[in-house]
Write a structure and sequence with these properties.
mainly alpha, 77% helix
Amino acid sequence: MTIPNLLTLLRLVLIVPFCYFVTAGMKFDTLALVVFVVAACTDWFDGYYARRFKQVSDAGKLLDPLADKLLVATALVAFAADSIIQLPVWTVVVVIGREFLITGLRGLLTEYGVVMGADNIGKAKTAAQMAAIMIFLVSRSENLRDRTFIDLGMAIYAIAVLLTILSGVVYIWTYRQILLESLKSKNPDA
């Protein structure tokens, strides 16, 4: 197993303590932030390492976005239910719905022998989501609880939602031929 894939697996494992800390009350926010930052760093480092040392793998192309999606979805669901952050539920549904859609598209593409990696818009979306989540974690701290932090987090989150929608449209458009082909029935009796 390659180092980038091990880092991706570590990020998947870190989702469990992050989920606990982010939902266990504000007294655990520092731990939630530390775990989230470590997980976010593994996201950057596994991609860098894979490209730098030519260890990009199909497993990594599939597992890396999955780990990102689970980490981000965990935080967004927690913040939608949070009394301080109060993310609009519809935005969380849009973000998670797009992730399901693109994950399904990735699965479909593998049936056609195509592995879809992340593009630059998708990477910017992930970076904006992670930045907003870190700011939200900081803004829940009693010492730093300030509307300015929450507003900054919301502004970055709004950009992340827009990038989420845009990147979803770009992926669908890029792979539209395969999508259209997949809609054709292979069985004439169906």
